[in-house]
Write a structure and sequence with these properties.
This protein is mainly alpha-helical. About 60% of the residues lie in helices and about 10% in strands. It starts with a strand and ends in a 23-residue tail after the last helix. This is Major facilitator superfamily (MFS) profile domain-containing protein. Belongs to the major facilitator superfamily. Sugar transporter (TC 2.A.1.1) family.
């Protein structure tokens, strides 16, 4: 037996199917489902029918009606529903379709962002093969302390960059932060490639460290915010893949060192190329729709969504952004909140 279930409240029309309430947009379309018993719920009326003429379902339907009305009142506050009706009848209802296929247009932008991850791995690994040769060239072949400074300064700069990357991304946007990040990456690579003193090498390594520290914060952030939900996990793992690719590239780049002791300068200098590509690529990449929405730049957010996923998914993604923003009630936390007394109970006493 074919039956339809609808609730009509003013200008809204909600379809009830299998105990769920679905938001719908656009034209109203009749939807039906197969039931052994036929029932419909409308504003101010309840009707039921069955093959056997059993009327015992009336009380259950009234309770279902009350529960549905409560669910609808809480749902329509956060959903935009358009319905058209003529002659008091329910017209067709177009359901919201979250299963639309994603556009592959996001992949080039993910690849551009992963240049930052590759540079992270490259700067970590490049010093391994070059340290012996640059130490001789800079006059510190026996000074293990200074060699240690050259190696560890990169990590010190990465610590600084990782603390500032998130703040810069929230203030200037994701793509602008990538372009700012390219500045210490380019300068650091240039200084290390042309260094004639240990001090210049250390400064260059520190600047490169700041660059990769910022990259470690914003690369996964940007990828997660532009990736479609159905492939977000897969694209998120690409960040780690490119870090490993960067380390491998640094080790391969050191192969000519045995025949050319001055090759270490080329090893450091070649990192300028992906840093420039990162800055140029981000100039043509769309900003994160989530960041634009948080800044109140709705037209720009819709434009970015069209570039990333196609115009057919604008309404869906904007709805997700609105519900995500309304569902977040937690206050922003600062670094000093880590030392709040409410967390002490989770620290074991020895």
């Amino acid at each position: 037996m074919q039956a339809s279930t609808h609730l009509v409240r003013g200008n809204f029309a909600i379809e009830i199917s299998k105990g769920r309430v679905f938001p719908c947009f656009g034209e109203v379309k009749q939807r039906s489902l197969t039931l052994n018993r036929n029932f419909c719920i409308r504003s101010g009326s309840t009707c039921s029918g069955s093959r056997s003429g059993d009327v015992s379902m009336g009380a259950g339907l009234v309770r279902a009606k009350n529960g549905i009305e409560i669910a609808v009142r809480s749902s329509v506050k956060t959903r935009s529903i358009k319905a058209q009706a003529s002659g008091g009848d329910i017209e067709d209802l177009t359901p919201f379709n979250p299963q639309a296929k994603s556009s592959g247009a996001v992949l080039p932008f993910v690849g551009v962002a992963c240049l930052g991850a590759m540079l992270f791995g490259y700067h970590l690994g490049v010093v391994n093969g070059a340290l012996e040769y640059l130490s001789k060239d800079l006059g510190i072949p026996e000074n293990t302390v200074m060699q240690g400074w050259i190696v560890s300064t990169l990590l010190a700069g990465a610590t600084v960059g990782s603390f500032t990357g998130g703040t810069l991304a929230d203030k200037f946007g994701r793509t602008k932060t990538f372009q700012l990040d390219a500045i210490p990456l380019i300068i650091g690579a240039f200084l290390t490639a042309t260094a004639q003193t240990v001090q210049t090498m250390i400064i260059g390594r520190f600047l490169a460290g700041i660059g990769i520290g910022i990259s470690s914060a914003i690369v996964p952030l940007y990828i997660s915010e532009i990736s479609p939900t159905e492939i977000r996990g897969a694209l998120g793992s690409i960040n780690q893949l490119f870090i490993c690719i960067g380390i491998l590239a640094a080790l391969v780049a050191g192969l000519p060192l045995a025949g050319n002791p001055l090759w270490w300068r080329t090893m450091f200098g070649v990192a300028i190329v992906p840093a420039i590509l990162l800055a140029v690529g981000m100039a043509f990449s769309p900003e994160s729709p989530r960041w634009l929405f948080q800044q109140g730049k709705i037209p720009e957010a819709e434009k970015a969504i069209r570039t990333l996923y196609g115009k057919e998914r604008v309404a869906e993604v904007m709805y997700e952004l609105r519900t995500a923003g309304q569902g977040s009630t937690e206050q922003e936390a600062g670094w000093f909140d880590l030392f709040s007394s409410r967390y002490w109970k989770g620290i074991p006493e020895f």
